[in-house]
Design goal:
With 241 residues, this protein is of the alpha+beta class. It has a domain of 69 residues: Integrase, N-terminal zinc-binding domain (Arc Repressor Mutant, subunit A, Orthogonal Bundle). Helices cover 42% and strands 22% of the residues. The protein contains eight helices and ten strands. The strands form three sheets. The chain has a four-stranded antiparallel beta sheet. Strands 5-6-4-7 form a four-stranded antiparallel beta sheet, with helices on both faces. A hairpin with a 5-residue loop joins strand 5 and strand 6. Helix 2 runs antiparallel to helix 3. The longest helix is centred in the first third of the chain and has 16 residues.
Length: 241
């Protein structure tokens, strides 16, 4: 895409995430609780729980917090019951948006999400209206200058689904969502440490926004991400600094 730097966009998004670390523990505890409730408390037998726990450890969450969240999920400790909710819609210039939530009150959550869409120039759509535009996968980003051939060999050996070299020289390794952790560990063992990695909803096509449109889109995303019940926001919009 002319003028667009994948690497700059990833760094921009990571910086915004780091700035919002105050909500990270709350989100992770919710995810661990729900994952344990749905698939049991055994990390080795519950891929979703394993991902959540690894992410919590990566954020230096205390062991007791993790264990208590698992126990709440399995019913060993009392706690709030959370439900999953996914809401879809359109942002500026029709950019696709997915909002994943964990909530104890879906009526409140859907009202809050709809309000954020309408207030900041978006439109909340129906279930499934944009989900087909995304791929659920693991994503590992490597900085420009990484040895492309060696990384490709290591990635394929690690079970990656795809290796993409971007115009700016950054390299993206795509994995299955529940193969992400094993692939990441295998690549690190081979000497390749990603600058950024996550399990995400990757847009199949991107909508590049600039100027006022980019500013308006970022305000919409910020409004959605600031809602207490929102876990993750995914979009096809890309906005460089």
């Amino acid at each position: 895409m002319a003028g667009h730097s994948k690497w700059a966009n990833i760094q921009h998004r990571k910086g915004r995430q780091d700035a919002k670390r105050g909500k990270v523990f709350t989100k992770l505890i919710k995810e661990i609780t729900v994952a344990a409730k749905m698939g049991g408390g055994d990390i080795t037998a519950n891929p979703r729980l394993r991902l959540a726990v690894e992410k919590a450890r990566g954020e230096s969450m205390p062991k007791d917090n993790i264990e208590n969240a698992i126990k709440r999920g399995t019913g060993q400790l009392e706690g709030v019951t959370y439900e999953e909710g996914r809401y879809e819609g359109y942002g500026i210039s029709g950019a696709a948006v997915i909002v994943d939530c964990l909530t104890d009150n879906k009526t409140r959550t859907v009202a809050d999400v709809r309000h954020a869409f309408s207030k900041y120039g978006g439109n909340m759509g129906t279930d499934g209206c944009v989900a087909f535009q995304f791929k659920h996968c693991g994503q590992l980003m490597f900085a420009p200058g990484t040895d492309e051939d060696a990384l490709m060999d290591a990635a394929l050996e690690a079970g990656a689904e795809d290796v993409i070299t971007n115009d700016d020289g950054s390299i993206e390794v795509v994995t299955g969502p529940y193969e992400f952790s094993d692939a990441k560990a295998a690549l690190e063992a081979a000497g390749f440490v990603a600058e950024f990695g996550e399990v995400t909803m990757k847009p199949l096509n991107e909508t590049e926004l600039e100027g006022d449109d980019a500013v308006r889109m970022q305000k919409l995303l910020d409004a959605l991400e600031s809602l207490d019940d929102v876990q993750e926001v995914y979009t096809s919009a890309v906005m460089d600094d």
